[in-house]
């Protein structure tokens, strides 16, 4: 059992560095998917991309702040 847990832990860490970031991205994809009937089809891609870009900048800033001040 320990071997299986270790295997899945290694696979998880291969793809996910920050679990909160992964969760926020997944929630954003689901939110945009749920908004598809409301927003125009041509705007879905840019809206999805804009959300990804904003989250990437926010989480990069968060990581940089944590590296600069490790006590928080």
Protein model, in words:
The radius of gyration is 17 Å and the shape is flat. The protein has one domain (17-68). α2 runs antiparallel to α3 (41-68). It is mostly helical. It contains 3 helices and no strands. The N and C termini lie far apart (35 Å). Helices cover 82% and strands 0% of the residues.
Portion in beta strands: under 5%
Helix content: over 70%
Output the structural class: mainly alpha
Radius of gyration: 17 Å
Detail the poorly predicted runs. none
Shape: flat
What is the terminal-to-terminal distance? Answer: 35 Å
Please outline the major beta sheet.
none
Order of helices and strands: HHH
Count of individual beta strands: 0
List keywords for this structure.
3 helices, single chain, 82% helix
Topology, please?
Blueprint: H1 2-15, H2 19-35, H3 41-68
Helix pairs in contact: 2-3
Offer a quick outline of the entry:
With 72 residues, the protein is mostly helical. It has helices at 2-15, 19-35, 41-68. The longest helix is centred in the last third of the chain and has 28 residues, at 41-68.
